[in-house]
Each structure stands twice: as structure tokens, then as C-alpha cells.
Amino acid sequence: MKFCFEERPEHFGALFGYCDHQVHKLMGKLLKRYDVSPMQCRTLMYLHGTDGQVNQKTLERHLMVKPSTVNGIVDRLEEKGMVRRSVSEWDGRCRLLSLTEEGRRFHDDFQDVLRQVNDRLERGFSQEEKAVFTDFLLRAARNLADEEETEC
Fold first, then answer.
1. pLDDT tens by residue, 107-121
2. Check: CATH 2.40.30.20 for 36-111?
3. Which of 87, 108, 117, 93 minimizes the C-alpha distance to 44?
């Protein structure tokens, strides 16, 4: 595919949007063999990082999506046998999510996909350039974050 910017764009947003779109497209292509969408992948990665059970509300805040969106994501991951949803013993209104063995296996297999995406993104950058670029991206992310609504 041809790169769509022949000269330096006037606004950062155009480049961020282009990069986001391209990464999302590449991730979708690489995830196809697992029958997992990029958002389902983010969910599995988050659950793996928690090393236990997470309530569904916490996942909604982390993904920054509506409850109905998380329900759909979790429904599909449950159907695939990657996530288990249970009711909290302490609060019947609270839904707890955890990875199944299949979900943990996906995480291990997926590390190769992450390496491929990162290798592609980092191609042509020196270690110093990667560090500076990361600092710039973190600063831009902080500039965009709404402290009251964003949870990482």
C-alpha cells in the first residue's frame, strides 16, 4: 500500500489517525488465524495482566467502552472458551471475568504477533530515537487524557 502523506501534514492528528488505522489493520490480519478481533485481544491481554479475576465494570473503564460493548466482547470470548464469567459471591450484581486455559494459551501464542507488529513499527529507528519517540507519544497521550474518565 502506498503511504498517503507526500509532505509533512499540518496536524499531528492526521498522522496519529493513519498510524492507528494501519496498526489496527495489521493486528486484524495477524489475529485472523486465532479468530480474535483486536478488541477481544486487548481484553485477553488485560485479563492476563491482572492475574486473577476482574469485575466487568473495571474492564469497561480500562477499554473505555460502553457496558453493552463489553458484554458483546465477553459473550464472544466465552463462546470461544477463552473467558469465564461468574457472579461474585459477595455481590450478585457484580460479574467477574477470568481467563480460561484456552485464554492463557492465546496470550502465550500471541507474543509472536506482538513482536511482528512492534518490529514493523520500530523498523529504521535507533534505540535513542525509539526512546525519544516513546516519550513524545506518552506526552501526547497525557495531553489527550481526561483524568476523571480515563483508566489505564
1. 888 888 889 889 999
2. no
3. 108
- List phi, psi (to 5°) of 126: -75, 165
The full set of domain ranges for the chain reads 36-111
Percent share of the chain, pLDDT over 90: 49
- All cell numbers assigned to 63: 477499554
Amino acid at 75: D
Query: Is the torsion defined by CA of 61, 62, 64, 65 positive or negative?
Result: negative
The full 3-state SS of the chain, as one line of letters, equals: CCCCCCCCCCCHHHHHHHHHHHHHHHHHHHHHHHCCCHHHHHHHHHHHHHCCCEEHHHHHHHHCCCHHHHHHHHHHHHHCCCEEEEECCCCCCCEEEEECHHHHHHHHHHHHHHHHHHHHHHCCCCHHHHHHHHHHHHHHHHHHCCCCCCCC
Q: What pTM value is reported for the model?
A: 0.77
